[in-house]
Amino acid sequence: MKISIITFGCKVNQYESEYIAERLEERGHIIVPQEAEADVYIINSCAVTNTAERKVQHEIRRIRRTHPNSKIAVVGCYPQLKPEEAIKDGADIALGNKEKKEIFKYIESLKKGSFVDKAYWLRDGAVESVSSGYAGKTRAFVKVEDGCDRACTYCAIRLARGTKIRSKPLELVVEEVKKLVNKGHQEIVITGINLGRYGVDIGLKLEDLLRQIETIEGDFRYRLSSLNPEDITDGILNVFRNSEKLCHHLHLSLQSGSDRILKLMGRGYTSSDFLKIVEKLREIDEVFSITTDVIVGFPTETAEDFEKSVEIVEKALISRVHIFRFSPKEGTPAAKMKGQLPGNVKRDRATELEKVAREVAKKYRNLLVGRRVRVLIERRRNGFSTGYDEYYQLHEMLGGRPGKLEKVTIVGVTDTGMVSKHEDSEKW
Fold this sequence. Notes:
The chain is of the alpha/beta class and about 425 residues long. It contains 13 helices and 18 strands. It has helices spanning about 10-25, 50-65, 75-80, 85-90, 105, 155-160, 170-180, 205-215, 235-240, 260-265, 270-285, 305-315, 345-365, and strands spanning about 1-5, 30, 40-45, 70-75, 95, 115, 140-145, 165, 185-190, 220-225, 250, 290-295, 320-325, 370-380, 385-390, 395-400, 405-415, 420. Strand 17 and strand 18 form a beta hairpin.
């Protein structure tokens, strides 16, 4: 069969879509692009916000309208939480996060209905492995952990992914990274649902995994997808300090600059804790790149609470902010909290923070001018190349080879990234 895979959401989902593609190709199926005609469309879904759910619902309807004779399989977090809703939306098959790993069993029989094991996290470990490489992609993802044992009051993903940490065996991670490096990938992204908790179920720590990755030979770099402030140990700081492979960029989750709101969120740290970690990272590298998430409009958030979030973004010189308007998710404590804010307040605060975040990001980028960095070239068109450096900043330059790490000198900034001079180019 010809099968198209459409992925929404996080890096873990991107990894699992690649895993699904490999398993299907092993059984003789043909993976085709999203826009192609296919016998089966697999939607690997996200449910982190109500907006994410609506995007999945829209995609189901779009495919049903444009490809009426094709089958639609919706898999992952959305059907894990709302399997019957996925069928009502128009899916032929709804599979949870356990079942999607063996999706071929369901689509080959074309048996209709929802198949979701609500207790899958009580026994299944994270043992998937991608070995053939991410064809046509410059960077590869390696999922090392699944599940979240935290209790953030706004988050439904722990309900979709399970409340028990399941870590991939260290030796399996190392072997997977080696295979991807040998396939030519020069950047590996280490990811998980709650990456900082890697190893708690198997007697290890994340820093143990990082030290093993450091021993892998080859011209490659790696970066961590996302950590919480309480995850940053002295051991992890030492790896950042001594490594020539680990990128000096970290997505450090903030969510709010108000300690009162952080407590209501169940985050387990304070704004001061966040800033202390930023300070330690900037002691290692004065331009260490920090990206973050901020939720605006959490129940009872006052103008003063919001301003504290703005202040943290400015004080920490955040290089990129992912801004979310609070979205009450069914089944979470925050959805039932008093003091829900109107949509126009959330919208206005998001708009204000976006403006500040753009200004702060540009101020950060200006600090990089004159530095020599390595850019992973992602695409080249009309002689110009674009790609990201170790600080996760977007570059544009003349020259460069797609899929390769190239040395460049930063000569200027734009509203969205950097302008650089390739070391082999006389122009920029």
